[in-house]
Amino acid sequence: MMRAMLTLAALALSCAAQQTRVFTGVITCTMCKNDHRKMGISPDDLCVRECIKHGAKYALFDGRNLYRLSDQQTPEKFAAQRVRVTGVLYAKTGIIKVERIEPAGPSKPGAKSSGSPRQPEGTGHKH
């Protein structure tokens, strides 16, 4: 009985730690992160797509952190654009298990930081 309760408690903690959240930032690549100038390919969306062709992965940059994305197809249409990614962050790997990606619009002054549970507001990155 005690073992079952401990297992249930561990499962509950695991589920709580993997809460669905909304992250706001710019779709980029793991090669350039937040600076596409060093590659010399312009505009930024073209740079992101070229880096993907050469082995980089799609990622989200929120102004501070770079998160790899589990979905590597959907981000293509949002390359170098500000988006909201709904998903679960696996902190140990820095990967967001993507549930949804949608346009976020321009950055707002004084916006809250991204990654808060169910908070669509966040800091963005301008290229």
Specify the helix fraction band: 10-25%
**Largest sheet: number of strands, sense, barrel closure:** 5 strands, mixed, barrel
Strand percent estimate: 25-35%
What does the overall shape look like?
globular
Can you describe this structure?
The protein is of the alpha+beta class and 127 residues long. The chain has a domain at 19-103: Beta Barrel (OB fold (Dihydrolipoamide Acetyltransferase, E2P)). It has helices at residues 2-17, 44-53; strands at residues 20-29, 58-61, 66-69, 82-90, 95-103. The protein has a 5-stranded mixed β-barrel with strand order 1-2-3-5-4. A hairpin with a 4-residue loop joins strand 2 and strand 3. The chain is globular and about 65 Å long.
Concise summary:
The protein has 127 residues and is of the alpha+beta class. The chain has two helices and five strands.
